[in-house]
Amino acid sequence: MLDFIIHIARDAGRYLKDNLGTDLDVSFKGRINPVTRVDKASQDMIIGAISREFPGHSVIAEEGLTQETGSEYTWYVDPLDGTVNYIHGIPFFCVSIGLYKKGEPYLGVCYSPVLDELYSSEHGKGAFLNGRRIRVSPAVHLIDALVATGFPYRKDSLEGSLSRFARVLARAQGIRRMGSAALDLCAVARGSFDAFWEEGLSPWDIAAGMAIVREAGGVVTGFDGAAVDLSSGNVLAANGPLHGELLRLM
Ligand code: IPD
Ligand code: CA
Ligand code: CA
Predict the structure, then answer these.
(1) Sheet holding 235-238, edge to edge
(2) DSSP-assigned letter for residue 72
(3) Are the C-beta atoms of 242 and 194 separated by less than 8 Å?
(4) Is 142 helix (H, G, I), strand (E, B) or coil?
(5) What domains sit in the chain, N to C, each tagged with a CATH number?
(6) Pairing with 209, which of 80, 158, 221, 239 sits 20 to 30 Å away (CA)?
(7) Ligand 2 center to residue 109 CA distance, Å?
(8) From atom 16 of ligand 1, which residue's Cα is the shortest distance away?
(9) Could you give the CA distance from residue 104 to residue 122 in angstroms, rounded to a whole number?
């Protein structure tokens, strides 16, 4: 199954890369959440492959597809995570596919086609970048930590986001806002970022990345320290030592 997911993520990723800079036919879900013909075509490729191979499985995919079959397997598909970057020609985006079994992370794959970086994980078997084992960082103090975050598309009630941002900024080495939550989580898994937090994410943004961070030895919770509810979308991911201090700042 992991080989199958890697294969479809690579195919969809190649399609994203080949279409970068072409006419994208941008439309909007709400005022500023964009979608392009490439998001939709990438999703069609991925979902076509999954439903041919595993027709009985549940599937939740970003571009308007929720298929609940009662299967113990659920696929979470983001056919292009980082659409705003993609539209602006910034090469930080990926395909993100997570497979959950009985509600728990089972397999995760994120593929960044421009960087040619493929992150993968399998429950109990570790996390990998292009086939080499990865682990979260060993940082202990927040002042040594590079922390990633993101901001919601909606523009109302930003106070919570901004005050969390100010609290972390005052204590960390630095903050980055890269524009792909899935790749932010993968960067925590490889130890490049020491931590990541963001509010209001969707299941397809985080399902694969969360699986990969956990298999890399990281801790992923909501802002209250409880297990992430995929539908509530508040995520704090970090190595073990930093998680507690960041949790207090959330
Ligand atoms: C977005 C990206 C971004 C995050 C947004 C997501 P999309 O996903 O992951 O980094 O800040 O909250 O919605 O729309 O590019 O698939
Ligand atoms: Ca996304
Ligand atoms: Ca997307």
Answers:
(1) 174-176, 146-149, 195-198, 235-238, 219-221
(2) S
(3) yes
(4) helix
(5) 2-133 (3.30.540.10), 142-249 (3.40.190.80)
(6) 158
(7) 14
(8) 81
(9) 11
Six token digits for residue 141? 């103090």
Write out pLDDT tens, residues 96-128: 999 999 999 999 999 999 999 999 999 999 999
Q: Is the dihedral of CA 196, 211, 116, 46 positive or negative?
A: negative
- Measure Cα distances from 39 to 19, 142, 181, 190, 213 in Å: 11, 36, 16, 26, 25
Distance in angstroms (rounded) separating the CA atoms of residues 119 and 187 = 10
Helix 181-189, helix 203-215: angle, nearest 10: 0
In short, whether 83's Cβ falls inside 6 Å of ligand 1 is yes
Q: Give the H or E element holding residue 111.
A: strand 104-112
In the structure, what pLDDT confidence band is assigned to residue 154 with cuts at 50, 70 and 90?
confident
221 Cβ neighbours under 8 A, 6+ residues apart:
227, 228, 235, 236, 243, 247
DSSP string, 38-64: HHHHHHHHHHHHHHHH-TTSEEEETTT
How much distance in Å is there from the Cα of 71 to the middle of ligand 2? 24
Q: Is there an atom of ligand 1 within 6 Å of 179 CB?
A: yes
Which residues contact residue 122 at a Cβ distance below 8 angstroms, ignoring those fewer than 6 apart? 2, 106, 107, 215
Ligand nearest to the CA of 233: 1
Task: Decide whether any atom of ligand 1 lies within 6 Å of the 43 Cβ.
Answer: no
